[in-house]
């Protein structure tokens, strides 16, 4: 892995987070990673860290063993058609564009390629992303390489491509839903007497603890809920009131609304 050359087409926040995560793990040196961006001055800070930067996508992609395409879905076809003539057929392609199928990406290249679609979430910025990855025309070694890269910025899983839209909603949109819960809990905390900063600190750590409890214990949420709901207690009363007001139903409907928007091609 140390000798692999990596190109990241689209050096925005996501592309930079991936680059820094890979380098922080020491599996690839910054001198082996090239990022591109049209407004090159926005990459000056990362250039000082030893990364290569350029505004020329072809230059970046020319000798890359692994190519991340971190651009908006509507830009993907144009970018791929621009670089396709100089890309070797064995180059690992990792698309971060939402909703574009691997078969479509392959058609843009006009040749058979090992293609991965990946959906990180914004926690990638602190190395805590949940990244779902699908593989197309890829062998086991290539899958291992891609998982290793994303495991430097959080947890990564290979899933069937038909579940990528679902992964976008549950993991990428899902982080916003979790943050909205924390915001609502903070507002409730203010109502019962805490200042806003203290309420936020308590709510955020409580959610972090709840997530870690499930991850480290491999238990079901209801099993952990049962541990804190006593007969006629305050916890069960609050939970039941939330359910009467449609808490779980509203969350599920929100997930379905986001999913349907992707499936209808409106994302």
UniProtKB/TrEMBL annotation:
Main location: cytoplasm
Residues covered by the Pyrroline-5-carboxylate reductase catalytic N-terminal domain: 5-98
Alphabetically ordered keywords of this record: Amino-acid biosynthesis, Cytoplasm, NADP, Oxidoreductase, Proline biosynthesis
Residues involved in NADP(+) binding: 9-14, 70-73
Subcellular location: Cytoplasm
Enzyme's top EC category: oxidoreductase
Span of domain Pyrroline-5-carboxylate reductase dimerisation: 161-262
GO biological process: L-proline biosynthetic process
Protein name, UniProt field: Pyrroline-5-carboxylate reductase
């Amino acid at each position: 892995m140390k000798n692999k050359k990596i190109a990241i087409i689209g050096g925005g926040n996501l592309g930079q987070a991936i680059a820094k995560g890979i380098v922080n793990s020491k599996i690839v040196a910054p001198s082996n990673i090239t990022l591109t961006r049209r407004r090159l001055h926005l990459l000056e800070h990362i250039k000082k860290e030893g990364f290569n930067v350029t505004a020329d996508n072809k230059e970046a992609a020319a000798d890359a063993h692994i190519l991340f395409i971190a651009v908006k879905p509507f830009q993907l076809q144009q970018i791929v058609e621009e670089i396709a003539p100089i890309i070797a057929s064995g180059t690992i392609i990792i698309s971060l564009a939402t909703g574009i199928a691997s078969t479509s990406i392959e058609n843009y290249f006009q040749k058979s390629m090992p293609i991965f679609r990946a959906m990180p979430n914004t926690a990638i910025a602190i190395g805590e992303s949940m990244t779902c990855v699908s593989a197309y025309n890829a062998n086991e070694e290539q899958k291992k390489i891609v998982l290793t890269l994303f495991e430097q910025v959080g947890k990564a899983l290979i899933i069937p491509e038909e579940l990528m839209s679902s992964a976008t909603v549950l993991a990428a949109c899902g982080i916003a839903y979790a943050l909205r819960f924390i915001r609502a809990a903070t507002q409730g905390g203010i109502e019962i007497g805490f200042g806003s900063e203290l309420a936020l600190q308590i709510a955020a750590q409580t959610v972090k603890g709840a997530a870690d409890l499930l991850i480290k214990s491999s238990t079901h949420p209801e099993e952990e809920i049962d541990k804190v709901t006593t007969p006629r207690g305050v916890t069960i009363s609050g939970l039941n009131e939330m359910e009467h007001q449609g808490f779980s139903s509203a969350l599920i409907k929100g997930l379905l609304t986001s999913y349907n928007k992707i499936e209808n091609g409106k994302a």
